[in-house]
Design goal:
Helix content is 67%, strand content 12%. It has 2 helices and 2 strands, in the order E-E-H-H. Helix 1 runs antiparallel to helix 2. Pfam families: DUF1656.
Length: 67
Amino acid sequence: MPREIALFDALIPTLLLVFIGCLFLQMAIDWVFSRLGLYRYVWHPSLFRIALFFCLFGSVGLLLHAI
């Protein structure tokens, strides 16, 4: 996987695109969890949200560099 991607003549790091993708994925998961009411069982919902985001971003980043 290339480290940088050319987008409109600008070199953008691949991890920035992964970050934005994980942000949208986390927002979708957050919407589903809030609709199902799963945050009633979580001790600290905002801490859970940020931990979920870092787990998503870390795992996708590691998978990206493993390819």
